[in-house]
Structures are given as structure tokens and as C-alpha cells.
Predict the 3D structure of the following.
Amino acid sequence: MQTDEQTYLETYDKTAYDAPIVSVDPVLFTWHEDQLKVLLVQRSGHPDQQMWGLPGGFIDLKRDATLEDTAMRKLREKTGVVPPYLEQLHTFGNATRDKRSWSVTVCYTALIAYQECAAHIATVADVRWVAMEELAALPLAFDHNMIIRHARERLRQKALYSIVPAYALPEKFTLPELQQLHEVLLGMPLQKKSFRRRIEQAELLEDTGEKRAESSGRPATLYRMKTGAGAYTFLRNLSGATDNEE
Amino acid sequence: MQTDEQTYLETYDKTAYDAPIVSVDPVLFTWHEDQLKVLLVQRSGHPDQQMWGLPGGFIDLKRDATLEDTAMRKLREKTGVVPPYLEQLHTFGNATRDKRSWSVTVCYTALIAYQECAAHIATVADVRWVAMEELAALPLAFDHNMIIRHARERLRQKALYSIVPAYALPEKFTLPELQQLHEVLLGMPLQKKSFRRRIEQAELLEDTGEKRAESSGRPATLYRMKTGAGAYTFLRNLSGATDNEE
DNA sequence: CCTTTTTGTGTCGTTAAGTCACTTAATGAT
DNA sequence: ATCATTAAGTGACTTAACGACACAAAAAGG
């Protein structure tokens, strides 16, 4: 029998098909006390109640117009602010990752300065920053540990050909700070000269005119990212790279 | 009231929440007659009935263990084979892309040799290869046109630092063939010497010993990809690159 | 004023891509 | 057979950008 589209849409029942659960899980990183940290929340409900996991949740069909909206909403709920960097990471979906059902989670990598949300986080007990080093000792809900490792690996790649990691720093930062962050991400030391040269040549940062004095030694210049600096990719990777795919 | 996890899981009703539609949409490319082509199918049902679109569909919770399984199953249904290259592209989700409901589609980029599925495709009327050039003139279902442009852009990026596009060629291919494919993807001519040198140096291909004779001129050596050659990324991009993100 | 510490620069070496002429190996015409 | 034509493949030099490392600059503290 022939049906026209109008009739079809009016009688369409999406619950007639067996569908998976869909969630959105942002992985929010920051840089604090010389460590890369990730934001985790303690689960209030089942499943995996009381365990720590990513600050994600379900799409609110009424309020969220896009998947990014869901990611930003969840992050705002937990941190009080929206991060300056948010990019889709990967979508994980299989029959076993969630005890309840076949489940799909759309994951995002997000970066923010520690101070940006420190005040808000201090007010709640079920949200905390966890250093990557501590993660191995902390069993997480679902497959969130694996997801965080994926996000971390993607961020490592970005450190080879971009200054995206700078979004994990405060608005004003020094080049030694940025270099140290990259070194931790890459797990290897970098040549000061090479690191500075390429950033200078690409004109990614602007001098704020200010300096930051350490306890001793020459004070470092404070820079700010120019608009679009995060989107820039160098033509050449920093070396020592182990080359994986995407 | 307190509930233990066992009880929670037994009484969990996933239809209680308002959930989006979830689909999987592979974008399968091939190289044929000096053109990049994409596989499209004519929709048999609503919505957008009769229009052409990506060879995707819904997850079969019983048969598919993972999202990749869904992508491969849909491709096998339409081409008779599974492609040698399949990688997740991006997940698109918003309130308006599907007339029926808030909808999420997990998209994949796939590559295959034209000959690999030519026989099977010839047997069915609702599946065809469409050259990228023709796409502008062919309005597609949903937001599939946008999705294909995304996939095409990602493939262009890969042509800068990998030989992934080789999966769109037959098992045995010549270096001039591969270079021409890259040139079309990048939209710019490449230096023969540079192109060959980096591939040779990384030892990505193996000589089959055979040659392919054109109508005139010196015959080209036929190569085969070594295992893992697709995962290799060069440390340096081919130049002229316009550098985007992602 | 001199030592220590950290930031920032000058300079040369090295690597891999860019350029382009030239050789090689085939076809086909005279 | 010889030679023009065509396309594949190589040789050799140039160029761009990172690697390495010494050295200069700017602060603190005794």
C-alpha cells in the first residue's frame, strides 16, 4: 500500500523499533600543578552507583538543539562555565558497554583553564579533578577509562602539530608553561628553540606586554592566543613522533 | 527509596525517556575513470522516498555487536563485500536533520576498489556510484550532501600525510595512479619525485614484479600495500596545504 | 658584585620536501 | 631498423624547518 510522506510522518512511532541508549560524554582536561587532570563526577544513580565517571548524560530533546548543546549543558552543570575548546572525539557503541542495553555514547574532548571553574567546583562534593596518574588506581564507571585514554591520545597527537593544548591554560600564559604542557602530553622533552620558533613564525600568540616572575630567574613574557590560533596546524610534526593513525 | 543495582536493571525501561533516532551512515568512496565516486542508494521508504542517500540504516541490536558491525553490514548488503578501509568520521546529531524526530547518525568513511563490487552493484537498480562532480546537481536525502563533503574533506587531509587513499584503488596499482588520485583529492599537482621518494623511504609498498603498460610510454611498476601501510603517517605534510583543523 | 636560575636568541647541522633536467622503456610511424 | 613520441622513473641541487647547543639577558639573593 502506498502512503504519502505526510501520513507517514504523522503516524511514525519511533519506539516501534528496538533502539540503543544514546548519551553524550565530554572528557574535560585541564592543567594544574604541573599535571594533566580530567574532570570526573561521582554517579548518584544506577548503574555503577557511587563510582566515578565522565560528566555526561542523555540528550534533552526539548532543550538541546545539537549534540554540542548537550555536551556544553552537561559541562556547564558541573563546572558553571562552558569551555573555550570543545571537539568531538569519537562515538563508542556496542552491546556490552552499558549493563542496561545496547548503548551509544558520543564523546567530546574539552579543555579549560583550571581557575576558570575552580570556584564552582569547590562548592560541590561530587565533582573533582583527577590527575591522569591517579586514574589507573581509580576504576571508573562503564568504559570511561578507555574513553579517557582515547581522548588523552588524541590530545597527544594534537600537541605534535598544533597549540590546541593551550586551551587548558589560563587566558594569559608563558611559553615555558605551554612547552611544559606539551612535553607532558608527548612524554618527551622538546627543544626550546624549535618550540618557540614555529609558534612565533606562525604568529599564533600575541604579547600581552606583561611578564610573569618566577621565584628566581628571568621573568617570562605572558602571551594570549590570537583568534584562530587553535585551528592552525603546522606542516611539520615535532619529531620523535611515534606516528599512529587518527 | 534505595534500590540495589540488580533490581534497577530488571525494572529499567529505556523507552521511558524521550530518545533520539540513531542511525549509521557509511560514506563509501572509490576511484574509477579518473574520478572520485561515492556510493548512493535510492530510498525505498519514507521519508525522502525516491531520493538518493547514503547506504546507511539502523542498528540491529540482535545482530550487530558494535557500530562498526552496523556499518559493515549495511555496506555488505549494498555491495556484496566489506571494504578494506573503514574509519569513523563524525557523528551528526540535531533536532532538525530528520523530519521524524531528533536524530543522531554515526558516520563512517570507507574506501574500496571499484572492481571489487562492480559485479554485485550491476545486479541491482537502486545502488549506484556517483562522481563527486555530479553531486551538486543531485539533491540528496537528509543532510547527506553535507556529510559527504565532510568525508571528502577528511580524505583530502589524509592525502597530505598518508597513503590511505590507496584503499580506493585495486590491490595492485601503480605509483602514477596513486599520485593522480592524491592530486584530485588535494586539488593541486604534486611533484612526482617528492611523492615517490617519501613512499619509498617509508617502505609502504612492495613491488609485485609486474608492470602495467599504457597505450604508449614506459610501463609502470605495479605495487601492493604492505600491511600497516595505511596506518603510517608521514612526519611532514605535502606542501601547498591550506591547513584546517581536525 | 658575583653566583644561580630561568628566559630567550644566534648559529650551524640535518632532514626531507621542492624543482627540474635527464634517462629509461615502451609504442608507432617512416 | 631508426627515430619521434610518450610516460615512468632517477639524479642532483635548492629550500624550509626542525634539532642541537652554546651563549646572552634579566631577574633574585647573598
Summary: Chain A touches chain B through 54 residues (CB under 8 Å).
